[in-house]
Design goal:
This protein has 306 residues and is α/β, with parallel strands linked by helices. Helices cover 55% and strands 10% of the residues. It has 3 domains: 54 residues, Orthogonal Bundle (Multidrug-efflux Transporter Regulator, Chain: A, Domain 2); 92 residues, Methyltransferase, Methionine Synthase (B12-binding Domains), Chain A, domain 1 (Orthogonal Bundle); 125 residues, Rossmann fold, CATH 3.40.50. The strands form 2 sheets. The protein has a 5-stranded parallel sheet with strand order 5-4-6-7-8, sandwiched between helices. A 3-stranded antiparallel sheet has the order 1-3-2.
């Protein structure tokens, strides 16, 4: 029974084996085992002697080892590999943004995922990835859409691809008793896909929060129950003002404004901290004093919650 529980725990925590870590870091499996024995990289060791590593273990090792960053291994094949690795090692987000946009529109999820995951594994904080790569990529795609250089389908493909990658970053920091604070992220009924809320969730999770993402159809009664049941102390909304955000269309603004007012009044009556991100807030007809904190960059959000 102990072994079974241990395996279930490892699967839940998304642990990596020594061979998987070696592949990520571009070295031999024996090197990883030696580093683990010397404490250069932390790991969990089973009763059978197998070593398992969290994504956080690998990231911390790479942050502390310049040679590990240089040997970062991507699963991208062909002549583009060396170029992309160079951009990653140089933190050339402008060049990486162009690649993400070009490949994302074509739904080349392998390249986009490898770039994002490699930057993350190198040790970059999620708020920096969002501010320097994800948001700029979204803005380029929005500009291309406005110029009619891409279709709405291509824009949607790109946004969904980025959303899936951000969701993967959330799973690297699962909820658990080791976190001390609890946040509720609320989506709006007409706002899909909600990448802004998912990025906010990732920032919360990487700064010690358990996060509950309500999705798009939560009723006030359900939200109240969740707040009381899980001791929620913070509540978050996010609205951009791009074409993808149906909640800020003229016909939907009254409903969105009313929804935000209702939820903010409820949150304030329960002494919850309120965080509202994105430029869409300026389009709503409401008293901004209802909201505790607003942010436009995810670095701002990080500073507000730490």
């Amino acid at each position: 029974m102990h072994d079974m529980l241990e395996v279930l725990y490892i699967n839940y925590m998304k642990y990596l084996s020594s061979s998987e870590v070696a592949k990520i870091m571009g070295c031999n499996e024996s090197t990883i085992r030696r580093w683990a024995d010397k404490g250069k990289i932390t790991c969990k060791k089973t009763v059978g002697g197998n070593r398992f590593f969290t994504v956080k273990d690998v990231r911390n090792c790479m942050k502390n080892s310049k040679s590990s960053q240089k040997s970062l291994s991507l699963n991208i094949k062909g002549n583009s590999l060396k170029k992309i690795l160079g951009f990653i090692n140089d933190s050339n987000f402008d060049k990486l943004k162009n690649i993400v946009v070009d490949e994302g529109i074509k739904s080349n999820d392998a390249v986009v995922s490898e770039i994002i995951n490699s930057i993350y594994m190198r040790g970059d904080e999620v708020h920096n990835i969002f501010d320097n790569l994800i948001i700029p990529s979204i803005l380029v795609v929005e500009k291309l859409l406005n110029q009619k250089k891409i279709t709405h389908i291509e824009e949607s493909v790109m946004r969904l691809l980025l959303t899936r990658n951000v969701e993967n970053l959330c799973t690297n920091m699962p909820n658990g008793s080791f976190n001390g604070k609890n946040a509720l992220c609320i989506n709006f009924e007409d706002n899909l896909p909600d990448i802004g809320v998912v990025m906010s969730e990732a920032v919360f999770r990487h700064n010690g929060f358990n996060v509950f993402n309500t999705g798009s159809l939560s009723k006030l009664g359900d939200i109240k129950t969740t707040i009381e049941k899980y001791n929620i102390d913070s509540i978050l909304f996010y609205l951009c003002n791009m074409q993808c955000c149906n909640s800020v269309l003229s016909k939907n603004l009254p409903k969105t404004s009313a929804r935000v007012i209702e939820l903010c009044n409820f949150a304030n009556s329960h002494n919850l901290k309120i965080y509202f991100g994105g430029e869409g807030l300026d389009l709503l007809n409401l008293d901004k004093s209802l909201i505790t904190n607003t942010f436009l960059s995810f670095d701002d959000l990080r500073k507000q919650i730490i």
